Amino acid sequence: MVSESMFEADQLWADKQAAWIKIGIMEGFTSAPCCVQCDGMPVTPEEDELFMEGEGSCIYTMRLYHDDFERLACESHHPPANWRKSDWL
């Protein structure tokens, strides 16, 4: 059974993420969140062409975690998430 405090914590987490994303979009630092599986990567036409030719440079993405359980599951399954994190901390 989900308690009221768990719901409030989830909502606080979501509100913080939304505020952070909105600032990034308004300041021109990030795109709106999109699903790489459904929507594809937000790239320039030149990047798309290079990718199709088997070339191109790195395009950085960030995973938005729903909660700590999802974060831990992703970090344990995807080692680069940990390697790259150390560059920012």
Look at the structure and give the mean pLDDT.
84
**Structural class given helices, strands, pairing?**
mainly alpha
Which spans have pLDDT < 50 for at least 5 consecutive residues?
none
For the secondary structure, the number of strands is: 0
Provide a brief overview of the structure.
The protein has 89 residues and is mostly helical. It has helices at residues 4-27, 36-39, 45-52, 68-77, 79-88. 63% of the residues lie in helices and 0% in strands.
List its traits.
63% helix, 0% strand, globular
Q: What do you see in this structure?
A:
With 89 residues, the chain is mainly α. 63% of the residues lie in helices and 0% in strands. Helix 4 packs across helix 5. The protein is globular and about 50 Å long. The N and C termini lie far apart (36 Å). The mean pLDDT is 84.
Please render the helix and strand layout as text:
Blueprint: H1 4-27, H2 36-39, H3 45-52, H4 68-77, H5 79-88
Helix pairs in contact: 4-5
